[in-house]
Automatic annotation (TrEMBL):
Domain of life: Bacteria
Bilayer-spanning residue ranges: 7-27, 39-57, 78-98, 104-121, 133-150, 156-177, 198-219, 225-245, 257-276
Organism of derivation: Leptospira kirschneri str. H1
Key words of the record: Membrane, Transmembrane, Transmembrane helix
KW Transmembrane (keyword) present: yes
NCBIfam families referenced in this protein's UniProt entry, alphabetically: prenyl_LA_0991 (NF047439)
Listed name of the protein: Putative membrane protein
C-alpha cells in the first residue's frame, strides 16, 4: 500500500510540488516577504505543469522504450494527462495575467522563456547543455523570485546561494544514482561528459563549500538563524551520505525519498519559528 502511494506520489511529481511550495514558504519567511494568496495557488499548479510537460515530452519521445517509471507512466496515460496538464496550464496562464502584479508577472514570463529553452536543449540533446545545472537554476529561480521581489531585507543573495547549492547537489546525486536509466533512454546527463567518480567528488566538494559558507553565515548572525542553519546543513549532508551508502539508498529509490523529501522539510524552520519566535 505504502509503495503504491509513493509510486503515484513520485510519478505525478507531487513530491516536487510540495517541495517547491515548502521551499518558497521558507524563502518568504527568511526574507520576510508578503506574498499574496494568488501566488500560493499558482505556484504549485505551475510547478506541476512544468514537470508534467517534461515527463510527457520524454515519455512521448521514448514511447515503449521508457526505462524511467515517470516517463513510462506519462506515456501509458498520455491522452488523459495531456488534457489535465493543458487545462492546468490554461488556468495558470489566465489566472497569472488576471491576478498577478506586473512585476511578478514579468519575472514569471522571463523564467518561463528560459524553461522553454531548457526543454528545447534537453529534447535536442545539445552537447554543451548540462541538464542538472539548468534544472537547479530554474528550480531556485522559480522558488525564490517571488520572495525576493517582495522583500526589503538585505542578504537575500546569501540565502538564495546557500539554497541553490543544495538543489545542485541533489540534482547531481539523482543523475549519479540513475545512470543506468539515463543510459537506457540515451538521456542528456552530465555523466556523458564526466565520470561517476568525478561527479561524486564534485558533490562532496560542493557540499563542503556549502557547509563552510553556511557556518560563516551562522557565525555572522549567531543564534538568530539556528533553525535555518540546521535545515541547510541537512541539505549538504544528505547528498554526501547517499553517495557513501549508494547501494542502500538505491533500494526502492530511497535516494528520491530523501532528496525530494529534503525540500518538503523546508517548512520545519518556519513552523519552529512560529511556535518559538526568537
Amino acid at each position: 500500500m505504502f509503495y503504491r502511494i509513493f509510486y503515484y506520489w513520485n510519478v505525478l511529481s507531487i513530491d516536487i510540488v510540495c517541495g517547491a511550495v515548502s521551499s518558497a514558504w521558507f524563502a518568504s519567511y527568511v526574507l520576510n516577504s508578503d506574498l499574496k494568496t494568488e501566488f500560493w495557488i499558482l505556484l504549485p499548479v505551475t510547478v506541476w505543469v512544468i514537470y508534467s510537460a517534461d515527463h510527457w515530452i520524454d515519455g512521448w519521445k521514448l514511447g515503449d522504450k521508457s526505462a524511467n517509471p515517470r516517463h513510462e507512466f506519462y506515456y501509458k496515460n498520455r491522452i488523459f494527462l495531456i488534457v489535465i496538464t493543458g487545462l492546468a496550464a490554461f488556468f495558470s496562464f489566465v489566472s497569472g495575467i488576471t491576478f498577478l502584479k506586473e512585476q511578478i508577472l514579468l519575472a514569471t514570463l522571463v523564467i518561463g522563456i528560459f524553461i522553454v529553452i531548457h526543454f528545447l536543449l534537453s529534447y535536442l540533446q545539445v552537447s554543451f547543455f548540462w541538464k542538472e545545472c539548468s534544472v537547479s537554476i530554474l528550480y531556485t529561480a522559480g522558488v525564490w523570485f517571488g520572495p525576493i521581489l517582495y522583500t526589503s531585507k538585505t542578504g537575500w543573495e546569501i540565502w538564495c546561494g546557500l539554497f541553490f547549492l543544495t538543489t545542485l547537489c541533489n540534482s547531481f546525486v539523482n543523475s549519479y544514482m540513475e545512470i543506468e536509466i539515463d543510459k537506457k533512454e540515451d538521456a542528456e546527463s552530465i555523466l556523458k561528459w564526466i565520470s561517476q567518480k568525478t561527479l561524486k567528488k564534485s558533490v562532496i566538494a560542493l557540499s563542503g563549500i556549502g557547509t563552510v559558507l553556511n557556518l560563516i553565515w551562522f557565525w555572522k548572525n549567531q543564534w538568530v538563524i539556528l533553525p535555518e542553519f540546521f535545515y541547510l546543513s541537512i541539505g549538504y549532508l544528505v547528498p554526501v551520505n547517499i553517495l557513501f551508502f549508494e547501494s542502500f539508498f538505491q533500494k526502492k529509490q530511497l535516494y528520491r525519498i530523501l532528496g525530494e523529501g529534503y525540500f518538503i522539510l523546508a517548512c520545519i524552520p518556519v513552523v519552529f519559528r512560529k511556535l518559538y519566535p526568537i
